[in-house]
Sequence to fold (473 residues):
Amino acid sequence: MYTNVWYVAAFGQDLTDAPVLVRMLGADFVLFRDADGKVQCVSNVCPHRGASLADGTLLKDGSLACPFHGWRFDGAGACTLIPSRRDHEVQAVAPGTRVDAYAAQERYGLVWVCVGDDPEAASPIPEIPEWDGDEFRFTQHEEVWEANYHTAKFTNLDYVHLPVVHGIPFRNQQNPTQAPAHQVTVTEYGFTSVMQTVPKASEGVWSTLRDEDRKVESVMKFFVAGMTLRGQVEIGGVGSGVFNMFYEFSTPIDAETTMMRYYFLRNYKREEAFDTEHTRRNLQNIHQDKAIAEAQRPKAAPVGPNPRGIYTHDEDKIMLAYWSLMERMRERGWQIDRDAMITAEHRGELRVIPSPARRHAPDGWVYAEMPRYTGRPASAAAISELSYVDVDALTPTRPADYGSVEPVRPEDPKSNATLEWESAALKVVEQAPTFVQPMIIENAEKAARQRGTNMVTAALLQELQAQQSAGRG
Fold:
């Protein structure tokens, strides 16, 4: 895990008139709004007795009162009052009392926190240019993945998984599983990859968005800040200006768990009634990725690429670009030393992510800072030491259609839905036994089409259920 990264700590709407506990990088933080409504972030542990400040009280003056003895702290981490000795200056009663405070910003409806001691050196928060206009419709989602943040991000950082995991073959080439030609451009703050392909035709309400066999361009951008992935698909075909987009923000809760937050964007069918269907279609792919990530091993986040790992041309070109960015941060001394951190925890020692104030005045803190690597750990390979086979330079030894058989694998029955579904209707399906769900979906969509609508509602499902019960009677 890496310090000096701007992570998404919450949606702005999550912060109201009470402190909010957030766990990031294996440490606890508390978010709150000061008297001016500005977002503040400090270490959650009171330096007096170790109480959770998130369980305390947010006062009208914008300070946070500890739940144990009422000691008050402001957004800069300074202790402003000890109630039991309020007739004395704090530093006279308890010299050196303070908590670590971190740079925080509220942008694009998100609370960003630079978890570290050098926010000026951190990669900048990425722009979301669609936010201020009215061309795109936004929906949002968040969920916890029982997978480390590297693994969680890797489920999106290649093209070969699209036909294998999501059933999206590349139809404009002989091998529909092979990644199309794409160029990866690495920058100081991330990388970009661009691909053009002809996807399979959509069904149902989605079939009206693009002519069959029309080429589609996909642009994938990764930013270190927020561990952000921006996906842009010109879903209407190249030159149409019809886009389906997403922003994925990955925040490591600890070495084995990740908070995933999403913005889903579209500039077509912008009516509110389409939000449920648009979110469902995006989550369909996300949950297929989630199942892959949560089953992968090792469970804990690796400290770098495996020096004995296998790296291939199509699957891993983008992943190696990702690791090169992580390597830069380790070389700057920002990567947390996982083994040293675990050792400290076993000894019962609390370690805190270092803050800017600690960097400028390192002495006199109650809790020691989390250790960080001073060099490359033996378990991680240097990017310069890794290579992959350039398959395109090899002479093929098998027929082009070798191994071409239809896959047999279980799928989420809801992924076969082709119409729009009201959220309450989806809940009805989810509550039914899995083996019955395909039949419910098929009958409901058939009935909806007969009535000339693309929307399946809970009321329609109830009506069909009543008809079925009457037939039995």
